[in-house]
Specification:
Length: 76
């Protein structure tokens, strides 16, 4: 499993993956205290998209992406 290095590519891929198979997608966030990094993962058990960051500004981007995905989940 590889990590995306560009947030915009990751966000677009997450939205695309969710649009393809909304019933099987899972969105997981975790924080590793050892290296103070936030790990974001979206998977449908076939494709796994991951992004790791230690930047505070990426938390705001995560909030926006989570809101977008949640709106799509509720409207389906």
């Amino acid at each position: 499993m590889t990590y995306f290095t560009n947030w915009d590519e990751f966000a677009k891929s997450v939205e695309r993956l969710y649009a393809e198979n909304p019933e099987k997608c899972r969105f997981v966030t975790s924080f590793r205290h050892s290296d103070k990094s936030l790990i974001i993962k979206m998977t449908d058990d076939v494709v796994c998209l991951q992004y790791r960051t230690d930047q505070l500004q990426d938390v705001k981007k995560l909030e926006k992406l989570t809101g977008t995905v949640m709106k799509k989940m509720v409207s389906a």
